[in-house]
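FIELD: query
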Amino acid sequence: MKVEIEESKLQTAYANACDGVKDFMESLFGKKVFEAAKPTLDDYKTIRTYEDACKALGEPIFEDPNNLPNHIIALMKLETISRALWGRNFQPKPDGEGSKVYWYPWFALWTKKEVEDMNPEQRGALLSAYAVGGAGAGFGCLGAIGRSSGALAHFGFRLCQETEEKAKYFGQQFIELWAEYLKFNFTVGNRLK
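FIELD: result
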């Protein structure tokens, strides 16, 4: 009997295994197969879990002694993951001139069909979700308008990535944490394996 296992699935299993199982897998397949699976700041795709991010950054795993709300814990974990995804050499800094582009994981909370099927009252509530000083589709935002200058902050810079590819990975791989952070009534979809 011949059994074939995709390397990416094997590495994911290894990353989620306890030490004894990791030792067994290394003896069975060889250590070299799993070197890429170890979380590192040099390859963002090795960061598959919050624990991977902590390991790569050399930080302890957060334990909540104060019973913080779940969405706050999720935000703290997302910030840690975001720093790990930035990598070893990337130091994000806000750019006052606006010449740098950063990417944020963006989520469609409704499909086009769901919006079309809404009654006028539901659609009106959806379309009025964006307001200055309010929330754009459930994301907190602040606005300073009507003074000598204007400034808007639609989402947290700490959760941005320097490439669109990384932002997409961040949103899809950690979708459960994003759902907990945003805490909206939607179902969790695809997660990268």
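FIELD: remark
Confidence is low (pLDDT under 50) at residues 129-144.
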